[in-house]
Amino acid sequence: MYEQIDRYIDRLLEGSAPNAPLWNIENIRQGKPAHWNYIDGCMITALLCAFDITGEQKYFDFAEKFIDYYVSEDGSILGYSVDKFNLDDINEGRVLFDLYKQTGKEKYKKAIFLLHSQIEKQPRTNTGNFWHKLIYPNQIWLDGLYMAQVFYVRFQKEYGGGDYSDTVSQFKNVRKYMFDPKKRLFYHGMDCSKTAFWADKNTGCSKNFWLRAMGWFCVSLIDNIEYIDDDDAIAELISIFREAIEGISQYADPDTGMFWQVIDRGGEEGNYLETSGSSMIAYAMMKGARLGVIDKKYSEMGKKTFDGICRKYLKINDDGELNLGGICLVAGLGPEDNKRRDGSYEYYISEPVVENDAKGVAPFVLCYTEVKRLSAV
C-alpha cells in the first residue's frame, strides 16, 4: 500500500487550488470563502515535512504558491483578524518561518509579526494560559496547545531571545489541572471559571477524553521539544510528553494499533477507531523515539498504528482512487448557544465521519514521513 500513498498525495495536490483545496471538507460543506485557517495549515506543514525528508521540490513549490495566495506584500493575511483572538488562526503561521528561511520573502516575516501581535494581546485565564478563542472565554483546550504554542516557540527562538518560559508554564498548567491520574489521560477542555455548561463544577474540566485533542497535545509537545534549544525547558516538556504517551499507549487497539474516538471507552456502542487522532499519536511516538526522548519501543508501536490505519481506512473506490476514511470532521465544546457540543460520550460519537479531510490526511502524511525516516536509517 505504501507505493500508492505518494500517488494519493499527488492527487490531492493536483486537484487543489489555494482557494479550493480538496482536503478542507469543513469549508466545502459550509460554503465558506477562502480564508486563512488551521486545516490548511496542518496540510502545508505536512507537505513541508515531506519536502524535508524527500527533497522533492513539488511539495515546497505547492506550499509556497498556496501561502502566497493568502499573504500580501504588506504582511496582511486573507480572512485573518487579530480581534477574534482565535488560537486556531495562529497554527498556519508556523510554516511562514520555513518559507521565509528558504525564500527570503519579507512578506512572510511581516505576517509572522502580525500573528505574534495576537499572541501578545491574547486574553488569558487565571492560570496564565491563553483563552482558546474570544468566543470561549476562560477556556483552555488541548487543541490550542498545538494551534499556538509551536508558532510561539518558533517566534521566541528566532526573534524572542529564546525565552520559552511562558510556553512551558502553559503546558505545566495543563498537566496540573487537566490530567486524570487514574485514566492517565488529559481532558479535552477546561473552563477556568467553572461556569460553562459542559464543565465540571469542581474541576472545570470537560467530561471525556477526545482522541484528536490528545493527539494535538502530543504533537505540540514533540514538535516543540524539537525546536526548543534550552535544556531546562526541554526537560520540562519531555516529562509531560513521556507521561502522555505512556498513558495513551495502554488504550491502543491490539489488532490495529489504532485508538478510539473516545479513548478509554473502546468497543462501546457507537465508538470507533479514528484516523486523525491515531495518526497524531503514531507520529508523536515515532518522532519521539527518533529524537531519543521516549523508548525505542514506541517507534514500532507508532509504525503498527500507521499500518493499521492503512489497512482499515485507506481504500480504493470504484474509480480506482485511493481515499483515507475514518476521520472525525470536527468536535468542540460549546459555545453557550450550542448545547449539543456538551463533551458527552454521545456527542463525540455523533459528529460526522468523513474521507480525505486534512485533519486526518495531514497527520497521516506526517506519519508517512516518519516511516520514510525509519527506512532511511
What does this 3D model show about the protein?
This protein is mainly α. It has one domain: Glycosyltransferase (Alpha/alpha barrel). The protein is built from 14 helices and eight strands. The strands form four sheets. The chain has a two-stranded antiparallel ribbon. It has a two-stranded antiparallel sheet with strand order 2-3. Strands 5-6 form a two-stranded antiparallel ribbon. Helix 3 runs antiparallel to helix 4 (57-70), helix 9 packs antiparallel against helix 10 (231-249) and helix 11 (275-290) packs parallel to helix 14. The longest helix is centred in the middle third of the chain and has 19 residues, at 231-249. The chain is globular and about 50 Å long. The protein starts with a helix and ends with a helix.
Based on the coordinates given, report the CATH architecture: Alpha/alpha barrel
Tell me the structural class: mainly alpha
**Strand arrangement in the largest pleated sheet:** 1-4
Most strands sheet: 2 strands, antiparallel
**Can you give the mean pLDDT?**
97
How many strand segments? Answer: 8
As a percent range, the share of strand residues is 5-15%
Share in helix? 40-55%
SSE sequence, one letter per element: HHHHHHEHHEEEHHHHEEEHEH
